[in-house]
Amino acid sequence: xxxxxxxxxxxxxxxxxxxxxxxxxxxxxxxxxxxxxxxxxxxxxxxxxxxxxxxxxxxxxxxxxxxxxxxxxxxxxxxxxxxxxxxxxxxxxxxxxxxxxxxxxxxxxxxxxxxxxxxxxxxxxxxxxxxxxxxxxxxxxxxxxxxxxxxxxxxxxxxxxxxxxxxxxxxxxxx
Length: 175
Prior knowledge:
Blueprint (H helix, E strand, L loop, with lengths): L2 H13 L9 E12 L9 E16 L5 E11 L3 E11 L6 E7 L6 E2 L2 E2 L4 E7 L13 H5 L4 E7 L5 E13 L1
């Protein structure tokens, strides 16, 4: 490929990116009240969760008006369940609920009756349309607290089963 042609392709690709997300590190501590259990994890059980991620400064628009903000970090649940965080997804001011979602993949630490719960593992907070001013990554506790429509956690096992619950006691610190 000629240098001029390569430069045009790169410019076109960069032009498709949404505004660059400012790199930040956020720590989330939360509790999950299980609503759909698996194995010995029963509905009503409370499991501690923790996540830490750093935005990579790259964001892009997705279907339905959502924006993906690439990130790296780790999400853990209980003593042994964990996976790398790869993205934060946000929506704002669309026809559907606003969203802040933190997503981990390649999860390990939960195997029930030979079924590996490898993810995705998601912490998803929903607010009424217009709760969020924009799709930028949230940086303040109040932005996370405003998402009161539904606060959900899920960990999937490739369509076989799902551990799910309600997010309680979410404390967020972004620097």
